[in-house]
């Protein structure tokens, strides 16, 4: 795989973040949260740099990144779409909504559309069970989504 | 009409959570002041013990006792932790308390610190709850400005500070030892207890971990007295419990009911009955660790011990209502899939055992199950429960055992008759066209994504079962009710 080139400016920002946490490896999860919000994802190259900054091994960083579902090693689409598959959403038909998204975007869960516009993921309960089934696009929440409504949601971001 | 009693949710929706003055106006921080100036830590712990408050995260351990154990351990530094890693799908009680009344949790944590000897508090919260995080940050800042947190609180010589730690999407981190490891920047894997966190927890120091809702009860108990609190509820479960009502019910949302309320009152009075006039089938409590309550259980009083006796558990408070359209085998499969994904992989009974359970369930919903598989499911479930390292594995087979126990007929129908009465299991379904109702409008054939429907115009159509992918598009489009599921 080609090596990912990371922007110097962002790397400086990351190093500042590490410093603000006293380069303490006990703060690894906090650092990873910040790093993901700066870079959008956590490629291996970035993990090596974080390991060096926090005086720990790259294996330890990789172990933590892959343990938690919030961290991702692949870049998300411009509009990440997440379908809630919590129990309340499940019993109100979230699976059918997911199927419709897969069909409409022609990608599987965990993939990004070729134009980089949308990515698809599932998550467990955003605590909006009253609105089930729930879909998130970026940080915007769509409630009571039906398979028929999928087209409209996608269209909203396609213009 | 059953009345709800708001204790944990007393301020939610009533005060502005970003204004500490609103909280103070409703007796906020009075309990802390009273404790610091009038009561000794021992007396305070005694009040909490006598109130009968039990852990609201699901375990149901006596809160006062937990505090006492932490207090008795000798150490220079102790920690007070709030578990806000609300991971049960379908539960959002903690989120609502943190978003609606964050100061109640902060106040209780400070009281806990005074009682147990902890000077540092940590809130471990899901990163998926940005608004709750934001409100907590504001609340901590305001409490410091008012001198309710920080050095020499209210001039009583007591120091206490609170920090926020973020989860990163791992269900197992709700388990207290896993949560502590996650706070230390490690993979959130649990460790064997003992030692319990109250003896050796965060950074190997004594740590008292309580859930959000448990904390929210503390100031009220101290303000109104343990006698008042213990007058609510049943013999062994005192006070109220917040439930997140969701699923196929008319009124969804949070409710706070006295312990001992029946499921019937919850569903039919508070929840307004089942959606679309359908028939109640089951209520799932305790999330992936819990089980199903059925019609048989409608009239038992809900408390910790009765729910366990009924093969479920209190859990953190998710209550998901299911109707006749839900297939219980699929529900068991749904929870197992969750457990398999969320198992941390450290111990083999949970990592491998749950995977095997899921495979057996998949075999059944595909129509390939045998009655022998049911025995295997039961045996394996028992082994996993007995041998897993932490609470996740020890309870993960509960949805399987509980659905087999309560819905044995459905399992046997899937196996013997290759039938799913709720029409959920796709592999067991067949879409059929009733020739008498079909007028040959061709709408279904035109909408079929795999061209499985054939037939001349104005003549009855036919579905090729080999080609059909069971998407249901034809049935949705048909205007003459000519397509049925067999």
Summary tags:
heterodimer, A: 159 residues, alpha+beta, Arc Repressor Mutant, subunit A, Glutaredoxin, 2 domains, four-stranded mixed sheet, 7 helices, elongated, B: 486 residues, alpha/beta, Rossmann fold, de novo design (two linked rop proteins), five-stranded mixed sheet, 41% helix, 13% strand
Question: What would your notes on this structure say?
Answer:
The complex is a heterodimer of chains A (159) and B (486). Chain A folds into 2 domains: 8-67, Arc Repressor Mutant, subunit A (Orthogonal Bundle), CATH 1.10.10; 79-158, Glutaredoxin (3-Layer(aba) Sandwich), CATH 3.40.30.10. Chain A is built from 7 helices and 4 strands; from the N terminus they run H-H-H-H-E-H-H-E-E-E-H. Chain A is elongated and about 50 Å long. Chain A has helices at 8-20, 28-39, 44-53, 58-67, 87-91, 94-105, 150-158, and strands spanning 79-84, 118-123, 135-137, 140-142. Chain B is α/β, with parallel strands linked by helices. Chain B has 4 domains: 20-230, 3-Layer(aba) Sandwich (Rossmann fold), CATH 3.40.50; 240-323, Ubiquitin-like (UB roll); 328-417, NADH-ubiquinone oxidoreductase 51kDa subunit, iron-sulphur binding domain (de novo design (two linked rop proteins), Up-down Bundle); 430-485, Alpha-Beta Plaits. Chain B is 41% helix and 13% strand. Chain B is built from 20 helices and 13 strands. Chain B has helices at 20-25, 30-38, 41-51, 63-72, 93-100, 102-116, 130-145, 176-183, 212-224, 226-230, 263-270, 304-309, 328-342, 348-365, 371-387, 391-395, 398-406, 408-417, 443-447, 473-477, and strands at 79-84, 120-125, 161-166, 207-211, 240-247, 253-258, 280-285, 291-294, 318-323, 431-433, 453-454, 462-463, 483-485. In chain B, a hairpin with a 5-residue loop joins strand 7 (280-285) and strand 8 (291-294). In chain B, helix 5 packs parallel to helix 7 (130-145) and helix 13 runs antiparallel to helix 14 (348-365). The longest helix of chain B has 18 residues, at 348-365. Classes of the chains: A alpha+beta (159), B alpha/beta (486). At the A-B interface, helix 2, helix 4 and helix 5 of A face strand 5, strand 9 and helix 13 of B.
């Amino acid at each position: 795989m080609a090596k990912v080139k990371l922007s110097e400016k962002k790397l400086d920002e990351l190093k500042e973040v590490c410093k603000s946490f006293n380069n303490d490896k006990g703060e690894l999860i906090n650092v990873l949260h910040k790093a993901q919000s700066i870079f959008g994802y956590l490629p291996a190259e970035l993990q090596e740099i974080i390991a060096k900054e926090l005086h720990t091994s790259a294996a330890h960083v990789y172990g933590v990144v892959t343990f938690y579902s919030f961290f991702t090693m692949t870049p998300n689409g411009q509009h990440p779409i997440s379908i809630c598959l919590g129990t309340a959403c499940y019993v109100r038909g979230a699976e059918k909504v997911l199927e419709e998204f897969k069909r409409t975007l022609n990608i599987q869960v965990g993939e990004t559309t070729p134009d980089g516009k949308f990515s698809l993921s599932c998550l467990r309960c955003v605590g909006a069970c009253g609105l089930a089934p729930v879909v998130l696009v970026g940080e915007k929440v769509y409630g009571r989504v039906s398979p028929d409504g999928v087209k409209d949601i996608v269209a909203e971001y396609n213009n | 009409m059953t009345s709800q009693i708001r204790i944990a949710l007393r301020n939610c929706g009533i005060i502005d959570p970003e204004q500490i003055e609103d909280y103070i106006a409703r007796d906020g921080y009075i309990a802390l002041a009273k404790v610091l100036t009038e009561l000794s830590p021992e007396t305070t712990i005694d009040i909490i013990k006598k109130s009968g408050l039990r852990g609201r995260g699901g375990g149901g351990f006596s809160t006062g006792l937990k505090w006492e154990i932490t207090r008795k351990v000798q150490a220079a530094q102790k920690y007070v932790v709030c578990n806000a890693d609300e991971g049960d799908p379908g539960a959002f009680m903690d989120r609502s308390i943190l978003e609606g009344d964050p100061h109640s949790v902060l106040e209780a944590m400070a009281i806990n610190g005074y009682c147990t000897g902890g000077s540092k508090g940590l809130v471990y919260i899901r990163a998926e709850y940005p608004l709750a995080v934001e409100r907590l940050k504001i609340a901590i800042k305001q409490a410091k400005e008012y001198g309710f947190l920080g050095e020499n609180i209210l001039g009583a010589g007591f120091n206490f500070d609170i920090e926020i730690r973020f989860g990163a999407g791992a269900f197992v981190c709700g388990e207290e030892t896993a949560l502590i490891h996650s706070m230390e920047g490690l993979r959130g894997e649990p460790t064997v207890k003992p030692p319990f966190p109250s003896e050796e927890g965060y950074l190997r120091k004594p740590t008292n971990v309580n859930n959000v809702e448990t904390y929210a009860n503390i100031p009220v108990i101290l303000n109104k007295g343990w006698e008042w609190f213990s007058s609510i509820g049943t013999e062994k479960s005192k006070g109220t419990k917040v439930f997140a009502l969701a699923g196929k019910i008319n009124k969804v949302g949070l409710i706070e009911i006295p312990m001992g309320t029946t499921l019937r009152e919850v569903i039919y009075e508070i929840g307004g009955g089942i959606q679309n006039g359908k028939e109640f089938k089951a209520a799932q409590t305790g999330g992936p660790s819990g089980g199903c309550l059925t019609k048989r259980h409608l009239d038992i009083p809900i408390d910790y011990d009765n729910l366990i006796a009924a093969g479920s558990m209190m859990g953190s408070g998710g209550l998901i209502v299911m109707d006749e359209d839900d297939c219980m085998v699929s529900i068991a499969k749904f929870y197992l899939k969750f457990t398999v994904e969320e198992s941390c992989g450290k111990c083999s009974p949970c990592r491998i055992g749950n995977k095997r359970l899921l495979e057996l369930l998949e075999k059944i919903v595909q129509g390939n199950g045998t009655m022998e598989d049911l025995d295997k499911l039961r045996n394996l479930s028992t082994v996993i429960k007995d041998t897993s390292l932490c609470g996740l594995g020890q309870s993960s087979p509960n949805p399987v055992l509980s659905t087999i126990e309560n819905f044995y007929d459905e399992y046997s129908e899937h196996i013997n008759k290759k039938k799913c009465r709720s029409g959920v299991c796709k592999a067991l379904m067949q879409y059929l066209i009733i020739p008498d109702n079909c007028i040959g409008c061709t709408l279904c054939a035109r909408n079929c994504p795999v061209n499985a429907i054939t037939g001349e115009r104005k003549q009855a159509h036919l579905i090729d079962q080999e080609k059909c992918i069971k998407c249901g598009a034809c049935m949705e489009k048909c205007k003459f009710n000519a397509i049925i599921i067999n």
